[in-house]
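Contributing new complexes? Match this layout with zinc ion.
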Amino acid sequence: MSEFEPEESLLGGAGMPDSWSRLWAPHRMTYLSGENRPLPGNDIPCPFCRVPTLDDAEGLIVYRGISAYVVMNLYPYNAGHLLICAYRHVADLTDLTEVERSEIFELTSTAMKVLRKVSGAKGFNLGMNQGAISGAGVAEHIHQHVVPRWAGDANFMPIIGQTKVLPQLLTETRTALAAAWDSV
Ligand SMILES: [Zn+2]
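Output block (do not edit by hand):
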């Protein structure tokens, strides 16, 4: 059975097999339902402004720079998914000062070195979603995604997505990345 087929215990359910592949990612549900994320109609404060007020372990902070910091994504696409965030609550790349822009890219570069050293990452997806229409979850506070990639990594996403496992993985990953940060 491939990971895309229903569990054997569910084969008595309703529906007909078709040619679509399905990727089950239950850990995304808390995110999509808006938990811990400022949206119109709720009064949740900006998480990227709040995180730097916490201690490193509680906030899952890997490194604090001068104008930007590095934090584990609470809702990772892959193990080791980091976010490089400006401290200032600004939305757009063009809102950043030259110092902030350059530090965000410097921290991105160091994050790649650290992820290669600690986890043997073979590739990366880097990027910023600009504006809610582009898919940004917290569109009001700029953040750069650093997603490490390994051959075949997409196949274990549903497995690492189990919510009981993820917080422990994040904590352990944060500790390893933070310890390696100054060595690259
Ligand atoms: Zn903010």
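Reviewers usually confirm one structural detail per submission. For this one: Confidence is low (pLDDT under 50) at residues 161-168.
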